[in-house]
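Why this split exists: single-chain examples teach little about how molecules sit against one another. For that reason, every record in the complexes split bundles all components of an assembly together and asks for one structure covering all of them. Below is a record exactly as it appears in the raw files.
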Amino acid sequence: MQSIFGIHEQALKVRTMRAELLANNLANADTPNFKARDLDWRAMLSQSKDELQMVPSGKPDLVRTNPRHIAASADFTTSDFLKYRMPTQPALDGNTVETHIEKAQFMENAMQQQATLDFIDGKIKGIRGALIGK
Amino acid sequence: MSMFHVLDISATGMHVQTVRLNTIASNMANVDSISSNAKDTYRAKEPVFQTIMDEETGRPTGGVKIKEIVENQAPLKMEYNPNHPMANKDGYIFRPNVNVVEEMANMLDASRTYETNIQVMNTSKQLLLRTLQLGK
């Protein structure tokens, strides 16, 4: 179903998820052997965009041996887009969290989330205006 | 997936740093706890952190916890001081293996990480409030 919010609904989901991951990296800044992770949100969003525009995706789908079978395909899971961060200065305890990088990424994500919220808010206000007839 | 999970994660981060600050305070307070044998002497304590893994998804999104608190096994400082009331029969007293400079550096690191978690919490709080305000 086409959402009235378009890509922004997915974008908000992706950015909330990414905020959690980055918060987790920052919380584990002193955990031995912890590997920092991040979400490949560009790939995730372009995937959602393709879905919205009904572009056939590269998703693994079921083989249909009978014309009356219903088409079905496996959903991409978050873990397909979950990547490990390459550290610029690896630490002796095996931890790959670089606080300054994580903080910068978190801030970037917060701004993007703010923008997404603004887009959704604008959409809601527009529709409400149309309904009220002002 | 809860909307407020990010706050829980930062809370665990703040909690472990508080425990770390507590052990540092304990180490600093006991820096002159003299004893007459090696067994009873205070040893510097240090927490070991561990990531909480999400049971359902296997994703490391659960924050951080204290795995254990270990004692520093570095040799104790033996000092020849036969006039000390705690001296053993050979005239030695034992001082804890607390390294004050190391503890101070640790304290700075702990307080910085604590601050980072507060900042994450604050930013998330603002975004969540904006989300709740959508369409108002």
